[in-house]
Amino acid sequence: MKFLKTWAFFLGLGACSLPLHASSGTEGAAFLDIPVGAGPAALGSAYSALATNAYAPVWNPAGLGFLSAPEIAGQHLSYIESVHDEFASFALPLKTSLPAGLAAAAQYLGSGDIAGTDPGGKPIGDFSVHYGAYSLAYGQKVTEKLALGVTGKVINAQIADVSANAYAADLGALYKARNDLSLAATVTNLGSKLTFSDQSDSLPLAFHLAAAYQPEKHWILALEGLQTKVGQTNGRLGMEWRPIEAVAIRGGYKTDTTKELSALAGLTTGVGINVWGQEFAYAWLPYGDLGDTQYFSLLLHFGAKDQEKRNLI
Q1: 167-219 residue pLDDT tens
Q2: Which of 269, 255, 304, 242 lies closest to 66 in space, CA to CA?
Q3: Pick from 12-21, 94-103, 290-299: least confident
Q4: Which of these, 260, 299, 244, lies nearest to 41 by C-alpha position?
Q5: Taking a C-beta distance cutoff of 8 angstroms, is the pair 224, 236 a contact?
Q6: CA 79, 110, 300, 141: dihedral to nearest 10 degrees?
């Protein structure tokens, strides 16, 4: 029974376009809504106003305008049952008249082998499902405090021997109102439909407004609201506490998953360990009866000063 629930949930996240399992009018490639990075995930996905690093291609491409040095990010996510999610990105600041940054990223969601059966329940062999998104992002300051950015991405999906492709863009703005306050706005997954055979489903288009506030050097508070194309309004809240510079303790809450699961499924928590300016992060997210998810990610900086990496500005 648990496997059936798991497979149904996985289809809802990553395979909404499969004709045998989805009704017309659903959103396709919903795996794009899976949080990227253990740090952002632990903060309840309230990260659009904080993404001035190698996670910017996914969370807010405008953050690349504030990138101070080359960065690499990598993630492994142990999802439900055999489902796994991988992510990698590389971000590079550009020497232009106004500060700018360029980044490339790849996200992959795979199911592993799944036992297939016919309508009568007889085995018909194993099959697999995978989804991938491959992105190129650019962000640039237009004033000392304001940056704008865009991400272009190609989305590929394959269910057994059937495949589909879609194309999308994210648009972002990031405004550093003060040294301790950042404001952000993004539009994500604006693009074509994902089509399997004769069924087409829209991508999970959403509009985000976010803020991040650092009342003092040990604390960061983040808040984000989003409106989806299908009419859902969700809220996200995150908080980070650094008792010492090398350790970040994070927690958050988001309403994205509570509608389908339970109130407990909105909780997020995790920890980040900083050594010589590099961060290893872990996050834990519960999904009720479906089980828990565990994130492991690494964020590597090359040449940035510690203080530049710590402050919101």
Answers
A1: 999 999 999 999 999 999 999 999 988 887 777 788 999 999 999 999 999 99
A2: 304
A3: 12-21
A4: 299
A5: yes
A6: -100
pLDDT digits (tens, 9 = 90+) for 33-58: 889 999 999 999 999 999 999 999 99
Structure tokens at 144: 């000392």
Rounded CA separation 31/14 (Å): 4
Report d(CA 249, CA 93) in Å as an integer: 28
Q: Which residue has the tokens 């998104």?
A: 133
How many other CB atoms are found less than 10 A from the CB of residue 109?
25
Q: Work out the angle at residue 45's Cα, subtended by the Cα atoms of residues 224 and 294, and round it to the nearest 5 degrees.
A: 165
The pTM for the full model equals 0.84
Closest CA to 59 of 89, 23, 26: 89
**Helix, strand or coil for residue 81?**
coil
Rg (Cα) of the chain, in Å, rounded? 19
Q: Where are the beta strands (DSSP E) in the chain?
A: 71-78, 84-94, 100-110, 114-117, 123-127, 129-141, 146-159, 162-178, 181-191, 194-196, 199-201, 206-216, 219-228, 233-244, 247-254, 267-275, 278-286, 292-301
Cα separation, 150 vs 169, whole angstroms: 7
Residues whose CB is less than 8 angstroms from the CB of residue 143 and which lie 6 or more positions away in sequence, other chains included: none
Give the separation between CA 290 and CA 80, rounded to whole angstroms: 7
Which amino acid type is present at position 120?
A: G
Distance CA 227, CA 285 (A): 22
The single-letter code of the amino acid at 153 is K
Q: Dihedral sign for Cα 107, 113, 115, 116, please.
A: positive
Burial 115-140, CB ≥16 within 10 A → b, else e: eeeeeeeeeeeeeebbbbbebebbbb
Burial class (CB in 10 A: 0-12, 13-18, 19+), 303: exposed
